[in-house]
């Protein structure tokens, strides 16, 4: 009898939790979540579908570990994918700590990039930790449960535009990916029209944006990770017209090197894009369900 009461209580508690989840997310439980971490002057974001994750960039230091600890289940010590958008330290330096705390299955890097000695050493350390290094180019895709990441840039064999300094040249070859979330129709098949999309643009320059637009690939997205921490050399008016985001997330810290630029903030305002700045507003979680998406402080 005591055992029956215990099971009945557990079942009742589970039912209450399910009702609460449906009440919070009218479209049902989350299909995909995206956490935009506040890690100072750097990028780090986590996309998750069920117990599968992709960490996009690792921030400038081990601060990313505490953010992962809040976003991932405590029992899950494996990250399926880590994507490094380009070889700048504020996007990869935190990955040494991540590799020490989690098993990383694959590290995704742009097929065309401007490597440095430090970045090559980081890749070798990640390889020694057991991760497979995979190069991605425009046209490739990665599935993550109910999400699909389509690679928009760089084309394999691409070269930086002439006249850019070394930093801008590396930025111009940033790995740019569009994550689309699949809804499930009544027939329990994937509805490829999707129920939301996020565009991850790394530190892409306006030249990169122009190249992606010219390629004709789909760029429309509900949420845009604003390029290069809000630099005026990214996120052009033409890019905003093509992407048509509702929300723009600027990953930026207090030591911001002038980011975000006032001109960039004006472009976002003119385009009617709501903005979120991690250095000012903290972390953000976007939740995608079968009925659409919503975002809230995290």
Proportion of residues in helical segments: 25-40%
Q: Outline, from the CA principal axes?
A: globular
The pLDDT mean sits at 87
CATH topology term of the largest domain: Metallo-beta-lactamase, Chain A
* DSSP summary, beta strand count: 17
Oligomer: single chain
What is the strand content? 25-35%
Low-confidence stretches: 1-26, 185-193
**What is the terminal separation in angstroms?**
42 Å
Order of helices and strands: HEEEHEHHEHEEEHEEEEHEHEHEHEE
Name of the CATH class of the largest domain: Alpha Beta
Content-based structural category: alpha/beta
Helix-strand layout with pairing:
Blueprint (H helix, E strand, L loop, with lengths): L1 H23 L7 E5 L8 E5 L2 E5 L6 H9 L6 E6 L5 H4 L2 H7 L1 E8 L6 H12 L3 E5 L4 E4 L2 E7 L12 H7 L3 E6 L1 E2 L5 E2 L5 E4 L5 H10 L7 E3 L11 H7 L3 E4 L11 H9 L3 E4 H4 L2 E6 L2 E6 L1
Parallel strand pairs: 3-4, 4-5, 5-6, 12-13, 13-14, 14-15
Antiparallel strand pairs: 1-2, 1-16, 2-3, 7-8, 8-9, 9-12, 10-11, 16-17
Provide an overview of this structure.
The protein has 298 residues and is an alpha/beta fold. It has 2 domains: 1-25; 31-297, Ribonuclease Z/Hydroxyacylglutathione hydrolase-like (Metallo-beta-lactamase, Chain A), CATH 3.60.15. Helices cover 31% and strands 28% of the residues. The chain is built from 10 helices and 17 strands. α9 links the parallel β14 and β15 (274-277). Mean pLDDT is 87; it is low at 1-26 and 185-193.
């Amino acid at each position: 009898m005591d055992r029956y009461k215990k099971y009945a209580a557990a079942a009742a508690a589970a039912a209450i939790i399910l009702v609460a989840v449906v009440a919070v997310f009218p479209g049902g439980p989350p299909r995909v979540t995206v956490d935009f971490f506040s890690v100072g002057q750097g990028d780090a974001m986590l996309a998750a579908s069920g117990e599968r994750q992709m960490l996009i960039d690792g921030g400038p230091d081990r601060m990313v570990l505490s953010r992962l600890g809040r976003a991932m289940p405590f029992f899950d010590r494996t990250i399926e994918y880590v994507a490094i958008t380009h070889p700048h330290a504020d996007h990869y330096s935190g990955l040494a700590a991540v590799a020490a705390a989690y098993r990383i299955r694959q590290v995704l890097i742009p097929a065309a990039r401007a490597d440095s000695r430090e970045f090559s050493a980081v890749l070798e350390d990640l390889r020694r930790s057991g991760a497979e290094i995979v190069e991605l180019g425009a046209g490739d895709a990665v599935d993550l449960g109910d999400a699909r990441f389509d690679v928009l840039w760089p084309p394999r064999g691409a070269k930086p535009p002439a006249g850019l300094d070394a930093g801008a040249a590396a930025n111009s070859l940033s790995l740019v990916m569009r994550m689309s979330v699949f809804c499930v129709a009544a027939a329990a098949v994937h509805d490829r029209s999707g129920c939301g999309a996020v565009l991850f643009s790394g530190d892409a320059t306006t030249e990169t944006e122009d190249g992606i637009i010219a390629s004709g690939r789909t760029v429309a997205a509900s949420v845009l990770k604003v390029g290069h921490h809000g630099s005026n050399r990214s996120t052009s008016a033409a890019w905003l017209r093509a992407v048509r985001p509702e929300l723009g997330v600027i990953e930026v810290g207090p030591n911001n090197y002038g980011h975000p630029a006032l001109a960039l903030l004006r472009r976002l305002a003119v385009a009617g894009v709501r903005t979120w700045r991690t250095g000012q507003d903290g972390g953000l979680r976007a939740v995608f369900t079968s009925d659409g998406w919503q975002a809230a402080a995290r």
